[in-house]
Amino acid sequence: MASGGLQLLGFVMAFLGWIGIIISTAMPQWKMASYAGDNIVTAQALYEGLWMSCAMQSTGQIQCKVYDSLLKLESSLQATRALMVASILLGLVGVFVAVTGMKCMKCMEDDQVKKMRMAVLGGVIFIISGLAALVATSWYGNRVARAFYDPFTPVNTRFEFGSALFIGWAASSLALLGGSFLCCSCPRRETSYPPTRGYPKNASSTGKDYV
């Protein structure tokens, strides 16, 4: 029962992490304009994401523009896109594999060993998915931080971390923890010994002597 509860907890955490990775990938707030300089402009807020850039006016109106050409984008942004998409696809595979190995599911009940291996394999896939998202978000965040502290970057063009980065970090951590719990939910094999055969008991004497 304990391993089943740990397995269910790991799957829920990994699944929530996978959903968070999808949300983070779709959000345009990967970095937001910083207004730390002398010329503070509060009429609009600028955001940039993996797929589009957005400007929010003081009235609350948001205007977004999808990036026109894939080839004109920076190679680092293209690599971040690829890692996040790969993380989503791996997470999708991990969901199906882990569900097959869950103890509460009816499939593969006749072979418990293969069922446990499927759960562990799903956990490994979730760990790889979380690592891909963690690398992508950390790499992107490092680029934003380096550009912010670069003295040659104009003050009015500096960016800070957006909310999508924090969601991506939290989601990748959930996927990693959930995948680890799935891998640890497999019970250890206990050494099994063949059952001892009972020796036939001697027929009890009736106490009567036959001549």
Task: Report on the architecture of this protein.
About 5% of the residues have low confidence. It is elongated and about 65 Å long. The longest helix is centred in the middle third of the chain and has 38 residues. Helix content is about 55%, strand content about 10%. Helix 1 packs antiparallel against helix 2 and helix 1 packs antiparallel against helix 4. The protein has a domain of about 130 residues: Butyryl-CoA Dehydrogenase, subunit A, domain 3, CATH 1.20.140.150. The protein contains four helices and five strands; from the N terminus they run H-E-E-E-E-H-H-E-H. Strands 4-3-2-1-5 form a five-stranded antiparallel sheet. The protein is an alpha+beta fold and about 210 residues long. Strand 3 and strand 4 form a beta hairpin.
Keywords:
211 residues, alpha+beta, Butyryl-CoA Dehydrogenase, subunit A, domain 3, 5-stranded antiparallel sheet, 4 helices, 5 strands, cell junction
Summarize the structure.
This protein is α+β, with helices and mostly antiparallel strands and 211 residues long. It is built from 4 helices and 5 strands. The chain has a domain at 4-27 and 75-184: Butyryl-CoA Dehydrogenase, subunit A, domain 3, CATH 1.20.140.
Radius of gyration, in angstroms, nearest whole number: 29 Å
β-strand amount? 5-15%
CATH class of the domain at 4-27 and 75-184: Mainly Alpha
Ends distance: 64 Å
Task: Tell me the helix content.
Answer: 40-55%
Q: Based on Cα principal axes, name the global outline.
A: elongated
Structural class of the helices, strands and pairings? Answer: alpha+beta
Please state the second-level CATH architecture of the domain at 4-27 and 75-184: Up-down Bundle
InterPro entries: Claudin (IPR006187), Claudin1 (IPR003548), Claudin_CS (IPR017974), PMP22/EMP/MP20/Claudin (IPR004031)
Function: Claudins function as major constituents of the tight junction complexes that regulate the permeability of epithelia.
Transmembrane segments: 7-27, 79-99, 119-141, 161-184
Keywords: Cell junction, Cell membrane, Membrane, Tight junction, Transmembrane, Transmembrane helix
